[in-house]
Design brief:
alpha+beta, 3-stranded mixed beta sheet, globular, GMP Synthetase, Chain A, domain 3, 2 domains, about 150 residues
Length: about 150
């Protein structure tokens, strides 16, 4: 890390694990955490996998915007993450995987795939999980109905 200059830092705390509360120590955000119904929990809050998907998709989209800017591409884009949690039967060994779907308005899938792969190389989350979880990056058609 000595080659890098720190540009941001944040700290979060969790109490209660998968059935508790997570918050940012600066007081700007707090969220109820709950185990998903699929895992026997109440599902009444968000879970770590959902938070990971939210964070990774936002971070990846930031990297995508940088790559688009370098290429002078100004069309709208969408990044959708699917995060899956796996468990070995009769064991406490868990593993994540992530599928990243990238869409850029009015660009063909081949060009979107190239841009998405470039973004994957510079995204801090992608770098953090490299060689530790399976990540796939795939170009998809732009869906205007997903815009909020």
């Amino acid at each position: 890390m000595s080659d890098y200059k720190k540009i941001y830092e944040t700290t979060a705390t969790n109490t209660g694990g998968r059935d508790g509360v997570s918050y940012l120590n600066d007081g700007s955000f707090e969220v109820k955490i709950s185990t998903p119904k699929e895992m026997g929990g109440s599902g009444s809050g968000v879970n770590p996998e959902q938070l990971f998907a939210l964070g990774y998709s936002a971070c990846f989209h930031g990297a995508l915007e940088i790559v688009k800017g370098q290429r002078k591409i100004h069309q709208s884009s969408q990044v959708t993450h699917t995060v899956k949690l796996y468990k070995k039967p009769d064991d406490v060994d868990f593993k994540l995987s992530a599928e990243i779907q990238v869409a850029i308005q009015d660009l063909d899938l081949e060009e979107v795939q190239k841009i998405a792969e470039e973004a994957h190389k510079v995204c801090p989350y992608s770098k953090a999980v490299k060689d530790s979880i399976e990540v796939s990056v795939r170009a998809v058609l732009y869906d205007a109905d997903k815009e909020k």
